[in-house]
């Protein structure tokens, strides 16, 4: 398919890239042959100026026809968007990611800096380092955190640094800025110049947010499109935010918590097991 235009979530018009779509299908866990078949099906349905959201839904549909777990993995970006409408579920989710990486974690605490107090979204510590995390949840891709956000967050970390160094003299202190979408190019340029660590969708290469998630299969329960917002909130309120935590629940507890049938609870548990290979 040559020179067909598609529309990104930001409204930008760009050329459709079959290579980018193929790569994303392979990253979801599909083998190359299956990915090629799915690509052919999708490209046959793409029309000029189709939205990337619509293309994503086509990919998700065909992935699920081949393999349901692979389809769920492809739903990760959308699942991160569903960690709203406030930013607090995303903060709890990233705190759980850090906990799974061996950190002791506190979410939503107040720390005294050299000059003023700061509300910290996620505070994580292990034997080697102490990490203060500022989480910026966005419910659409157009509102990417920009350089002003990076500068503000960096200044807060600089105020915390001398206090943290005094309190934890045997550990390094780092500040992280994390978003569920992407950063603007000037935010990245500033962060790389100033040494501010940032994580987002596809950034940095090899150690991005989705890489942290995929390497330990830390998928949020929001990848399940069959869950409504009330059920998601009930799970998160009961500290069930990862699919692997859902997989560890008893079917009867799932049924009672979400007010669903036994068959539905069994299906949710099976999907969770299938995705994180817990069975």
Structure characterization notes:
The chain has 279 residues and is α/β, with parallel strands linked by helices. It folds into 3 domains: 5-73; 86-214, Trna Endonuclease, Chain: A, domain 1; 219-276, DNA polymerase, domain 1 (Orthogonal Bundle). 49% of the residues lie in helices and 16% in strands. The chain has helices at residues 18-27, 32-43, 52-66, 68-74, 76-81, 88-100, 147-167, 185-194, 209-215, 229-237, 243-247, 251-258, 262-276; strands at 5-7, 13-15, 50-51, 104-112, 117-125, 129-136, 172-179, 197-199. β1 (5-7) and β2 (13-15) form a beta hairpin. α1 (18-27) crosses α2.
What would you call the shape?
globular
Number of domains: 3
In helices, the fraction of residues equals: 40-55%
Provide mean pLDDT, rounded: 91
CATH-defined fold name of the largest domain: Trna Endonuclease, Chain: A, domain 1
Uncertain regions: pLDDT < 50 for 5+ in a row? none
Instruction: Please trace the helix and strand order, writing H or E for each element.
Output: EEHHEHHHHEEEHEHEHHHHH
Main structural class: alpha/beta
Measure the end-to-end span. Answer: 41 Å
Count the strands?
Answer: 8
Number of helices: 13
Q: Return Rg in Å.
A: 20 Å
**What fraction of residues sit in β-strands?**
15-25%
């Amino acid at each position: 398919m040559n020179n067909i235009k598609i529309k990104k979530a930001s409204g930008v018009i760009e050329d459709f890239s079959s290579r980018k779509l193929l790569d994303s299908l392979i990253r979801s866990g599909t083998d190359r042959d299956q990915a090629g078949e799915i690509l052919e099906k999708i490209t046959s349905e793409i029309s000029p100026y189709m939205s990337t959201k619509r293309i994503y839904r086509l990919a998700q549909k065909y992935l699920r026809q081949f393999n349901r777990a692979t389809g769920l993995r492809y739903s990760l970006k959308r699942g991160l968007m569903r960690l709203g409408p406030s930013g607090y579920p995303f903060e709890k989710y990233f705190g759980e990611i850090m906990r799974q990486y061996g950190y002791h974690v506190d979410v939503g605490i107040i720390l005294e800096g050299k000059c003023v107090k700061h509300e910290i979204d996620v505070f994580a510590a292990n034997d080697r380092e102490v990490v203060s995390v500022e989480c910026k949840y966005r419910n659409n891709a157009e509102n990417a955190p920009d350089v002003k956000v990076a500068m503000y967050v960096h200044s807060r970390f600089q105020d915390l640094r001398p206090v943290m160094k005094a309190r934890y003299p045997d550990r390094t202190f780092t500040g992280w800025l994390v978003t569920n979408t992407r950063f603007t190019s000037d935010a990245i340029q500033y962060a790389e110049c100033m040494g501010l660590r940032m994580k987002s969708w596809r950034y940095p290469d090899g150690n991005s947010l989705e890489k942290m998630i995929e390497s330990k299969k830390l998928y949020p329960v929001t990848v399940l499109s069959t869950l409504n917002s009330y059920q998601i909130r009930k799970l998160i309120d009961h500290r069930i935010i990862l699919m692997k935590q859902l997989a560890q629940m008893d079917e009867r507890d799932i049924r009672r918590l979400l007010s669903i049938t036994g068959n539905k609870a069994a299906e949710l548990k099976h999907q969770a097991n299938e995705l994180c290979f817990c069975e």
